[in-house]
Write a structure and sequence with these properties.
Elements lengths: L1 H8 L20 H10 L1 H27 L2 H12 L5 E2 L3 H8 L3 H13 L3 E4 L2 E4 L2 H9 L4
Antiparallel strand pairs: 1-3, 2-3
Helix pairs in contact: 2-3, 4-7, 5-6
Length: 143
């Protein structure tokens, strides 16, 4: 979304992204982008559809950050990303990006969960110990 706004508004791009799967990225120079927007209805429709989809995602994240506690968002993210053995292989920074908060906040919350025996933090991964308790936390307010 920020990329599209940057190209349309002539502003520099300063965002970051996390790819959860392999991807192919294509860079289109601003002049080519403007020409395609002006001359190709299919390209223009693609850009605005992608923009609308990302705007919907952004509104969801803003809603979550504004109205859902960090603990709930963290519990939900851990459960959603755990493998069959209850391991989550994301860094604290990656989790922070996922739930829309700072790395320090995630680290503190994970320490609190570890002290309660709900998770165990290990280098490069988090292991869910009490899945039922984490699920209860995620449901409190229904994400």
């Amino acid at each position: 979304m920020q990329t599209t706004l940057g190209v349309l508004g002539g502003a520099p791009y300063t965002g970051e992204a996390v790819a959860e799967n392999d991807l192919v990225a294509v860079m289109v120079p601003p002049a080519v982008f403007e020409r395609l927007m002006a001359s190709s209805p299919a390209f223009r429709a693609f850009v605005f559809k992608a923009f609308a989809d990302r705007l919907g995602d952004l509104m969801f994240v803003l809603e979550q950050v504004a109205f859902v506690k960090v603990e709930q968002r963290l519990a939900h993210a851990l459960l959603e990303r755990a493998d069959d053995e209850g391991r989550v292989t994301l860094t604290h920074q990656e989790l922070a990006v996922v739930i829309g908060t700072a790395r320090e906040v995630v680290s503190r919350r994970l320490e609190a969960l570890a002290s309660k025996g709900v998770v165990a933090s290990e280098r490069g991964q988090i292991r869910i110990i009490e899945k039922g308790e984490l699920a209860r936390m995620a449901r409190a307010g229904e994400l």
